[in-house]
Structures are given as C-alpha cells and as structure tokens.
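Students often ask what a 'structure token' actually looks like in practice. Rather than answer in the abstract, let us consider ECF transporter S component, a protein of 167 residues. Its sequence is given first.
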Amino acid sequence: MFKTNNLVKIALLTALTTAISLLVIIPVPAMNGFVTLCEAGIYLGAVLLGPAGGFWVGALSGGLIDILSGAPQWALFSMIIHGIQGLLVGYLYQKFTSTFKLSISLVLGSASMIVGYFIATMILYTWPAAMASIPGNLVQTVFGSLVTIVVLKGLKKTSFNPAKGGN
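Now compare that with the structural description of the same chain:
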C-alpha cells in the first residue's frame, strides 16, 4: 500500500507529465499517433519513486495523454506499455549497482516502449504502420532519456538526493 506522501508524488508527476506532453505533440500520420515528452516524466517517476511509482505515473499519464489529445484508441495500449516501461525502469534502476545503472535502465525501458508500440500499431493498423512508428518512438525515448539525465544531475546538486530511488 502507498503512503499518502507517495500518492501525492505520483499524482503530481502524473499531472506534470500529462501537461508537458500535451503542450508538445508532434503528429505521426502513418500511424495516426503522435510523439510527446512523456518519457521524461515516466523515467523520473520510476527513478524517484521506484517500480510501483514508475508504473502508475506511466500508466496514468499514458492513458490521460491519449484521451485528452483525441486518440482514445491508443489509451489502453498506452496504459499497459508506459506502465510496464515505468515499472521496468524503476526495477532495473534499483537492482543495478554499476555506475551505468541509469543508462542501462533507460535503454531497456525505451526498448520495451518501442516494442510495445510496434505490437500495438500492428494490432490497430498494419505492419507497415508499425515499422513507421519506430523512428518517432526512438526520438521520443532518446529525448525523454536525455531530459531525465539532465534533471537528475540538477537534482543531485541540491539537498535532494535522487540516487536513493524509491523514496
């Protein structure tokens, strides 16, 4: 069970991720979808709040972004894909002990999102559309990973220490 403090953090990160993602939407006509900035919020949620927090920030913001942006056919897929993505990044970040744990976590989380949307696009549309989704999803995950790294480096310079993870 979550403590009230963590529920508030999940709610705030979900709202922030959704709002930022809705501010910048880049349409991808081939798959009737779009590219957003949601990865940064999901990855920050996963690193700062652990696997469960990452799951809920990913699932809730992923679904909300689709519903609020007029693409409800993607909402269930996004909830599952981004939820798993946040869970995976949070889990791997906590389990790895190497200096590259953040990079490894982000790469594997990004790969899970790209594969997830490839499958979802094949289900909703066709395999050519699924192939067309790869570059946009790759750009989205790379940008989100870079933003996450920059924000975490900034947080480490403050009294808040995100290196603990799962707060």
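One point worth highlighting: The first strand starts at residue 26 and ends at 28. Ask yourself how you might have guessed this from the sequence alone, and why that guess would often be unreliable.
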